[in-house]
Structure formats: C-alpha cells, structure tokens
C-alpha cells in the first residue's frame, strides 16, 4: 500500500490558487488598449499558496 506524503504548499483558500486578477477600468490609452489594474490576493500575497498550519505541541502531565 502506498504511503501518502503530506502536501508542502497548500492552495490558498481565499483565491483558489488564482493569486492575481486583472480588472479593466473602462478607459483606454491613446493607442486603443484598455487601462487595467492588477490586484493580488491579500491572504497569500500573490503567491497562490499558503503554508500548512503548524501543529501545536500539548504539554504532557
């Protein structure tokens, strides 16, 4: 039976791995192209991945 390895980098829950979105403002440049804004995910800082949660160590009595 194969052993499952834990994932090192998990996909961000806030953006589902799509860390950046481009939004058009509706205006155009002089050459006819659209003005766009690039917005990154604040939860993962634009990487698309988050680090796994660290396990807490419990005190043994």
Automatic annotation (TrEMBL):
Organism for this UniProt entry: Streptomyces ortus
Protein name: Molecular chaperone DnaJ
InterPro entries associated with the record: HSP_DnaJ_Cys-rich_dom_sf
SUPFAM superfamilies reported in the protein's UniProt record: DnaJ/Hsp40 cysteine-rich domain
Taxonomic lineage of the native organism: Bacteria, Bacillati, Actinomycetota, Actinomycetes, Kitasatosporales
């Amino acid at each position: 039976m194969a052993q499952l390895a834990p994932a090192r980098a998990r996909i961000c829950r806030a953006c589902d791995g799509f860390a950046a979105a481009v939004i058009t403002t509706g205006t155009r440049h002089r050459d006819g192209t659209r003005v766009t804004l690039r917005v990154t995910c604040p939860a993962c800082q634009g990487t698309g991945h988050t680090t796994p949660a660290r396990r807490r160590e419990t005190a043994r009595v």
